[in-house]
Amino acid sequence: MSSLKEIRTRINSVKSTRKITSAMKMVAAAKLKKAQDAVLNLRPYDEKLHEILVSIARSIENEGVESEYLVKRPEEKVLLILITSNKGLCGGFNSNVIKKGLETAQSKYSRQWKEGNVSFYTIGRKGTEFFRLKGYPLYGSDNDLLDDISFSKAIPLAHSIMSAFTSREFDKIEIVYNKFKNAAVQLLTVDPFLPIDLELDEQGPEENEQYYYIFEPSREYIVQELIPASLRTQFYEALLESLAAEHGARMTAMHMATDNATDLIKDLQLTYNKARQAAITNEINEVVSGAEALKD
């Protein structure tokens, strides 16, 4: 059994750790509120924008309106964008994205993977460090974007990725990230990014009802402006979703760590009390034995 001093040292150490995890939990909760509000405010805009695109999809096809972002080519070169975090201590948040990205590359795009035509773009320091360490094909990385996310800062990166598609560097681009559901649940998601698929959802007639808009200045101009806007919004939303999911995962992880520390302190305290009681009992026995020896 450990000595009383060793047990007291462990108890004090765990208490210090519990203070840290509890503080990190509160910080994550505060950041989560801000990130959650940003996601919930953007979702309706993104959904409405997509709805408008879907509603004019048939007219685009019938009237021959073309966009370079709609061109479907044989999927020879694939780019997977992985959104992780810059910091750890958030459970399996980062490892799940990395595993899903590798699984998508090796199973969904197995032929391209074997031919060396699958590349990764990492957003977040944790993903970048992993892929550089393992030597996987890294097309690029951005570790600073997540420190202070804003739409204006996300636009240049979105344009760069969109240009990689239009210049035929890649024929297929997908985004792998954790989508925010609530503080305790993150949905691992693989979203197609390019080319855009504007097929109508298989829903009832009311959901798929076609609206006939009056276009000004022209249908072609609106479509050409609307599609890049939709792509920028989709990219920005993925960043916000991942950020909110990260704070939720970290808050949950720190909550569990705090609870585990509390349970460990209780166990150590019980062990300490037992050891202390045993030590006192031994001392009493020694005193009694000494007294008996003197009588004899």
Radius of gyration: 29 Å
CATH class of one domain: Alpha Beta
- The shape is elongated
User: Which class do the helix and strand fractions yield?
Assistant: alpha/beta
Distance between the termini: 34 Å
Number of strands: 5
Q: Name the strands of the widest sheet in spatial order.
A: 3-2-1-4-5
Largest sheet properties: 5 strands, mixed
How large is the share of residues in beta strands? 5-15%
- The helix/strand order is HHEHHEHEHEEH
Assigned CATH superfamily of one domain = ATP synthase, F1 complex, gamma subunit
Q: Remind me, CATH topology of one domain? A: Pyruvate Kinase, Chain: A, domain 1
Uncertain segments of ≥5 residues (pLDDT<50)? 200-208
Oligomeric nature of the chains: single chain
What is the number of helical segments per DSSP (H or I, 4+ residues)?
A: 7
Structure description:
This protein has 296 residues and is of the alpha/beta class. It has a domain at 43-246: Pyruvate Kinase, Chain: A, domain 1, CATH 3.40.1380.10. Helices cover 61% and strands 13% of the residues. It contains seven helices and five strands. The chain has helices at residues 4-55, 57-62, 93-108, 110-114, 125-134, 151-166, 219-295, and strands at 78-83, 118-123, 138-142, 172-182, 185-194. Strands 3-2-1-4-5 form a five-stranded mixed beta sheet. Helix 1 packs antiparallel against helix 7. The radius of gyration is 29 Å and the shape is elongated. The model is unreliable at 200-208 (pLDDT under 50).
Secondary-structure topology with pairs:
Layout: H1 4-55, H2 57-62, E1 78-83, H3 93-108, H4 110-114, E2 118-123, H5 125-134, E3 138-142, H6 151-166, E4 172-182, E5 185-194, H7 219-295
Parallel strand pairs: 1-2, 1-4, 2-3
Antiparallel strand pairs: 4-5
Helix pairs in contact: 1-7, 6-7
